[in-house]
Amino acid sequence: MEQIKKLIENAWQHREALSEKPVKEAIEFVIEELDKGRLRVAEPAGGDWQVNTWIKKAVILYFPIRKMETTEVGIFEFHDKIPLKKNYAEQGVRVVPHALARYGSYIAKGVVMMPSYINIGAYVEGGTMVDTWATVGSCAQIGKHVHLSGGVGIGGVLEPVQAAPVIVEENCFIGSRSIVVEGVRIGREAVLGANVVITQSTRIIDVSGKEPVEFRGYVPPRSVVIPGSYPKKFPAGEYQVSCALIIGKRKESTDKKTSLNQALRDYDVSV
Question: pTM for this structure?
């Protein structure tokens, strides 16, 4: 693996090396390992997350060594450089038409994909529901038993290579039409209400105590979050700016509510 890492790092600095067979093989090996879940762009490390920048470089370098190809699926036609994932039955993944995932993304056993999209480099752990029209961007990390509700947008990131991807830890519930981008990290068991938008610059304000506590780019574990706004002065006057409000911690009643979706993850139940 160290030799493969050296080849990729060298190709990153010297793009002419992309024409060399060992470099191409090294890049293709990394993408296959990502696809199988044996490598990942980011991984837990001592209570925090470590970004493996050399793997992200391999993902970026995969594009220039690929050629455009036409793929036909029945009456549908695609024209792209990256093939689609295959063999879902062998992997124990339920895929509802028209769900799509690119090769190089890892989707664990027990994941349910409603009509949705998962991009290259993403890592989706077991028991997670990717609901209708939800998107999981490139290199995003989604934990076990997460529910990405309808229309959720999980942003992707490739460059800059040192930037962390979006991370949604285990047992989170992300409400319909919510958007999480720019490497934001959602702590385990957090609940985001519908239409919550969080970027690195979004003020995340805990208003559950006597004094507000502010976060940026991070939602603490078991937080219950709703959309909010705060007044901000501009040259043209004072206007409301969007923020995210933490109104409390997840309670047993919240756990019961999200568990109602368990039937959708069970292959033996007709839904």
Answer: 0.92
